């Protein structure tokens, strides 16, 4: 009896696993997008014989949509050219075809990466599967640039409020600090060589529009290695107080029910 039960459970589990990887290929996706993710590798590439592909996972802290660009241009445009979709930290699984394995063969846990993918979104009948296939990847083995604000990243500021931006590097590097505003507009706040061991400060007043700001730091050291960090804040609009005084209701304004 025990053997029979074990066999039955094994069969069910096997079928379930196969459904995950074979059903999506039997249906056309409801959408195909070009998505990009920035984050940290939490699981290195591993070969999956069932799908004949490699799989790795990242803890993504920024997601952008590059669907407005054709596939042959997705990897050529700047990161900021993609539309911001999310800054919510999440684990993202990336699939790599065998012919692209050379792009990730040296990937290690802890590496900072920027990936761009061809993403297939499948119908709800399959549980709404979303599968990200790697198009290209940039790897920064060590992060050496950091940016933050006086109230802490993720904090809320109001239009007109003072904001202090801090940044530093752990090796000599050429840095560019970029302010991203709602609607996909950008402003370079400063650029130049930064020295390790120094905390740099940018003071300013939060201006319109309300919504959000993302402060980016792009750093390139003297060997050509690059590093990136960002800091997101919410921005509230100005509060205007008004007083409404009734001055009478015009005749005929109210109707009998």
Summarize the structure.
The protein is mainly beta and 257 residues long. The protein has two domains: 139 residues, Beta Barrel (OB fold (Dihydrolipoamide Acetyltransferase, E2P)), CATH 2.40.50.140; 92 residues, Immunoglobulin-like (Sandwich).
3D architecture notes:
- The protein has one helix at 2-26; strands spanning 31-48, 53-65, 83-86, 90-97, 112-121, 130-140, 145-149, 156-158, 162-169, 173-181, 185-194, 200-205, 211-221, 226-236.
- It is mainly β and 257 residues long.
- The chain folds into two domains: 2-140, OB fold (Dihydrolipoamide Acetyltransferase, E2P) (Beta Barrel), CATH 2.40.50.140; 145-236, Immunoglobulin-like.
- The protein has a five-stranded mixed beta barrel. Strands 8-14-13-10-11 form a five-stranded mixed β-sheet, with no helix packed on it.
- The model is unreliable at 1-24 and 253-257 (pLDDT under 50).
**Helix/strand structural class:** mainly beta
Strand content: over 45%
Total domains, how many?
2
Runs with pLDDT <50, length 5+? 1-24, 253-257
Number of strands: 14
Query: What's the average pLDDT?
Result: 81
| CATH level-4 homologous superfamily of the largest domain | Nucleic acid-binding proteins
Helix content: under 10%
CA radius of gyration is 25 Å
